[in-house]
């Protein structure tokens, strides 16, 4: 419809460029339409299963818990003298991750062993851990506030646990 | 009908109030058997529980009947010295944390945030009392969760 208008005018020299742009624009729309159609429907590459489920809002918390566990494990590896103090905290974060996964009901694809977490930076490993726990506490508290009833208690316990970790690291 | 007030909010807060009554009571014998910094901490903890109690009484009185405090509460074991006082302090904070944790599922918005703050405070005090008592580990993975 749009394409026919400029072509029908008499000022051809002026309108050709115009109509080309419209052709290009229409082509872009067609390409986009072509790209989205297979996602919505089924094609050869679609296995015909259900579409991938939307990510659970708790999945970032699983990753966060594993990250915190990894930070404590790394600090213990760097200074075994901290093992007595930090091992229960690392175990708590691992227990949180396991419980969150159970509540989510499936293993998140991003879940990976905590070994990749980096050691706390600087000469004050405990201060870095404390900051990480404090941040984690805020994230968990926000998740608790936003959670449906059946998840609120777990997220509340995780929030409170992280607060006690800050206390122990002080 | 469309208001999504969670079921059992009043019941959960009443239960939390009864736990706060018991905590205030327990800190009487606890404080008597502690000295120095531990006694000061016991006084501060008692004041914190009184504040929670008063806030709950105020809030619940707007909704209807407020459960009454009892004249006394049975302690789970005799408190006769510092170590037993510290042990009871840990136990009281863990117990009270459980009631506030239970209230989380029955509340939302500001009520839930208050319950979360109370749960967290109880967990923090339990950790400090464990440290004072020489109990390790100082923390538990899921504060307030029934064992």
Provide a descriptive summary of the structure in words.
The complex is a heterodimer of chains A (170) and B (147). Chain A is mostly helical. Chain A has 6 helices and no strands. Chain A has helices at residues 4-8, 12-40, 59-78, 83-104, 125-146, 149-169. In chain A, helix 3 packs antiparallel against helix 5 (125-146). Chain A is globular and about 55 Å long. Chain B is mostly helical and 147 residues long. In chain B, helix 1 (9-32) runs antiparallel to helix 3. Mean pLDDT of chain B is 94; it is low at 1-5. Chain A binds chain B through residues 84, 88-89, 91-92, 95-96, 99, 141, 144-145, 149-150, 152-161, 163-165, 167-168, and chain B through 6, 97, 100-102, 104-109, 112-113, 115-116, 119-120, 122-124, 126-128, 136-145.
Distance between the termini of chain A: 71 Å
Radius of gyration of chain A: 27 Å
Number of helices, counting only DSSP H or I runs of 4 residues or more of chain B: 4
Coarse shape of chain A = globular
Helix segment tally of chain A: 6
* Major sheet description of chain B: none
Helix content of chain A: over 70%
Secondary-structure element sequence of chain A?
HHHHHH
Mean pLDDT of chain B: 94
- Class by helix and strand content of chain A? mainly alpha
Give the topology, please.
The complex is a heterodimer of chains A (170) and B (147).
Chain A (H helix, E strand, L loop, with lengths): L3 H5 L3 H29 L18 H20 L4 H22 L20 H22 L2 H21 L1
Chain B lengths: L8 H24 L3 H28 L18 H23 L4 H25 L14
Helix pairs in contact in B: 1-2, 1-3, 3-4
Structure summarized in a few sentences:
With 170 residues, chain A is mainly alpha-helical. Chain A contains 6 helices and no strands.
């Amino acid at each position: 419809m749009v394409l026919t208008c400029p072509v029908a005018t008499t000022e051809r020299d002026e309108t050709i460029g115009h109509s080309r742009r419209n052709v290009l624009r229409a082509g872009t729309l067609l390409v986009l339409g072509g790209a989205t159609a297979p996602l919505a429907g089924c094609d050869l590459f679609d296995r015909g299963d259900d579409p991938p489920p939307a990510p659970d809002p708790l999945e970032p918390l699983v990753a966060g818990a594993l990250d915190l566990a990894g930070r404590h494990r790394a600090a213990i590896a760097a200074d075994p003298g901290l093992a007595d103090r930090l091992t229960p905290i690392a175990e708590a974060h691992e227990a949180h991750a396991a419980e969150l996964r159970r509540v989510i009901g499936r293993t998140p694809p991003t879940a990976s062993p905590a070994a990749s977490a980096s050691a706390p930076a600087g000469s004050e490993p405990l201060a870095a851990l404390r900051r990480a726990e404090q941040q984690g506490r805020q994230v968990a508290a926000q998740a608790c506030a936003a959670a449906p009833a059946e998840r609120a208690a777990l997220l509340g316990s995780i929030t409170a646990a992280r607060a006690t970790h800050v206390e122990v690291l002080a | 009908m469309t208001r999504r007030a969670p079921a059992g909010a009043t019941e959960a807060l009443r239960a939390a109030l009864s736990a706060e009554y018991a905590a205030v009571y327990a800190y009487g014998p606890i404080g008597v058997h502690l000295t120095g910094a531990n006694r000061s901490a016991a006084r501060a903890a008692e004041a914190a529980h009184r504040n929670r109690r008063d806030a709950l009484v105020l809030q619940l009185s707007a909704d209807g009947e407020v459960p009454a405090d009892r004249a006394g509460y049975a302690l789970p074991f005799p408190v006769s010295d510092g170590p037993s006082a510290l042990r009871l302090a840990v136990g009281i904070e863990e117990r009270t944390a459980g009631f506030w944790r239970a209230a989380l599922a029955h509340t939302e918005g500001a009520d839930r945030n208050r319950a979360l703050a109370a749960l967290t405070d109880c967990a923090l005090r339990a950790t400090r009392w464990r440290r004072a008592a020489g109990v390790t580990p100082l923390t538990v993975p899921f504060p307030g969760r029934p064992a």
